[in-house]
Amino acid sequence: xxxxxxxxxxxxxxxxxxxxxxxxxxxxxxxxxxxxxxxxxxxxxxxxxxxxxxxxxxxxxxxxxxxxxxxxxxxxxxxxxxxxxxxxxxxxxxxxxxxxxxxxxxxxxxx
Length: 111
Known about the structure:
84% helix, mainly alpha
């Protein structure tokens, strides 16, 4: 039953994060493009932490696929933040969470 406690804590923390995102998008940073750039730059800082891990340089094709995934992730963040800014977070976040497995199944079928 310990997994249930961990799951509930994780969902609670996600709810807090999305409420903070909503507050920032309405009060402090009203432009979702700017907020997306801030978040993407923070994610980009992970590259500087990579040498301190068990890191290896992948092949060029895989590296390009990773960059493409990062670009798509950034566009996805923009649309997520735009939705959170315009609508209630309690409606947007479950929708995005439900679309993830659907897109995974579709992409698995075609790839």
